From TrEMBL:
<comment type="subunit">
    <text>Interacts with C3b. Interacts with C4b. Interacts with moesin/MSN.</text>
</comment>
<keyword id="KW-0325">Glycoprotein</keyword>
<dbReference type="Pfam" id="PF00084">
    <property type="entry name" value="Sushi"/>
</dbReference>
<feature type="domain" description="Sushi">
    <location>
        <begin position="117"/>
        <end position="182"/>
    </location>
</feature>
<keyword id="KW-0180">Complement pathway</keyword>
<dbReference type="GO" id="GO:0007338">
    <property type="term" value="P:single fertilization"/>
</dbReference>
<dbReference type="GO" id="GO:0002079">
    <property type="term" value="C:inner acrosomal membrane"/>
</dbReference>
<dbReference type="GO" id="GO:0006958">
    <property type="term" value="P:complement activation, classical pathway"/>
</dbReference>
<keyword id="KW-0472">Membrane</keyword>
<keyword id="KW-1133">Transmembrane helix</keyword>
<keyword id="KW-0768">Sushi</keyword>
<keyword id="KW-1015">Disulfide bond</keyword>
<feature type="disulfide bond">
    <location>
        <begin position="213"/>
        <end position="240"/>
    </location>
</feature>
<comment type="function">
    <text>Acts as a cofactor for complement factor I, a serine protease which protects autologous cells against complement-mediated injury by cleaving C3b and C4b deposited on host tissue. May be involved in the fusion of the spermatozoa with the oocyte during fertilization. Also acts as a costimulatory factor for T-cells which induces the differentiation of CD4+ into T-regulatory 1 cells. T-regulatory 1 cells suppress immune responses by secreting interleukin-10, and therefore are thought to prevent autoimmunity.</text>
</comment>
<dbReference type="InterPro" id="IPR017341">
    <property type="entry name" value="CD46"/>
</dbReference>
<keyword id="KW-0812">Transmembrane</keyword>
<keyword id="KW-0391">Immunity</keyword>
Length: 336
């Protein structure tokens, strides 16, 4: 709302002030459009609830479609969306906004309409054909299937692309037309690797081959490739680089790819006690003395074991062994 008269610097008790609805709003009785100065020198509460926002003309549902009220209203400052039913496409703006102009609230554009989705016949292809070639107009989701003609030579044609396409939108098919052509990929050879599936003498369109690397080599790339429409392997053939490992490490399995394992290394022999110092070229004297003492102890123990064993052997030889035969009560002497 807005004041009808100009503001005054001072108002008497009981004096009234009148309002009117602003442009773009309209009045609905019986709500008040005035306020007055009360005896306590305050204004009688006034609200703008008497003025309502103007609306654009009611948007009707288009034939074979509908209007969606996004905010539940078609007053100015809001918008509506147009949608078409299945098998129809929209002509015009999908979103209209109710705008406030000099003449009042108006729509931002003309109402949209819904027309039936139709497609012209799909493209013809060289060395091939499609079904329903006699049909001049195709409706929504109606489909055709392509096939290749017999090849004049020993090499057969391959259908490269989608076999079946359908009318997806107005004058628009779901995919481009395929091609009929001879596709032959070269014999797949991977250095330091071998083929484990997809064996054959000739590799035509969509032929698949699987590889693995020899022992000591790892796979770099995809282990499975397919013969593409341009007579090339997709993705490209993998590589089998040599596995880099220390001489003491066991070779990795040929089919394993990725980062190489690391192995702990022994410290240089120069760090061991008694080894010649790299600069001085002499042995550590403490280490030399310890080795000599250990050898003497081992020699003494060896001699003691031999003497004890020989002594026990001679004693048994002198005494012999007497066996008593219980059945004949005879004493039999048996020497060792």
């Amino acid at each position: 709302m807005e004041l009808i008269s100009e503001l005054k610097p001072y108002y008497e008790v009981g004096e009234e002030v009148h309002y009117k609805c602003k442009k773009g709003y309209f009045y609905i009785p019986p709500l008040s459009l005035l306020t007055f100065c009360e005896k306590n020198h305050s204004w009688f509460p006034a609200t703008d609830e008497a003025c309502f926002r103007d609306s654009c003309s009611f948007p009707k549902d288009p034939e074979n479609g509908r209007v969606v009220f996004v905010n539940g209203t078609y007053s100015w400052g809001f918008e509506v969306h147009y949608e078409c039913h299945w098998g129809y496409y929209l002509i015009g703006e999908a979103i209209l906004r109710c705008q406030l102009k000099e003449e009042g609230p108006v729509w931002s554009d003309k109402p949209a309409v819904c027309e039936k989705i139709l497609c012209l016949p799909p493209p013809k292809i060289e060395n091939g054909k499609h079904t329903f070639s006699e049909v001049e107009v195709f409706h929504y989701l109606e489909a055709v299937t392509y096939s290749c003609d017999p090849a004049p030579g020993p090499e057969e044609y391959s259908l490269v692309g989608e076999h079946t396409i359908h009318c997806a939108n107005h004058h628009k098919w779901s995919h481009n037309a395929p091609e009929c052509k001879v596709v032959r990929c070269p014999f797949p050879v991977v250095a330091n690797g071998k083929q484990i599936s997809g064996f054959g003498k000739v590799f035509s369109y969509k032929a698949k081959v699987t590889f693995e690397c020899n022992m000591g080599f790892y796979l770099n790339g995809s282990d499975t490739v397919s013969c593409g429409g341009n007579s090339t392997w997709e993705p490209s053939l993998p590589l089998c680089p040599k596995v880099s490992t220390p001489s003491t490490a066991k070779p990795l399995n040929s089919s394993v790819s990725g980062p190489k394992p690391t192995h702990p290394t022994k410290p240089p022999v120069s760090n061991y006690p008694g080894y010649p110092h790299p600069k001085e070229g002499i042995f550590d004297p403490d280490y030399d003395t310890w080795i000599i003492a250990l050898l003497i102890i081992i020699a003494i123990l060896t001699v003691a074991v031999v003497i004890v064993g020989l002594y026990k052997y001679l004693q048994r030889r002198k005494k012999g062994t007497y066996l008593i035969d219980e059945s004949h009560r005879e004493v039999i002497f048996t020497s060792l």
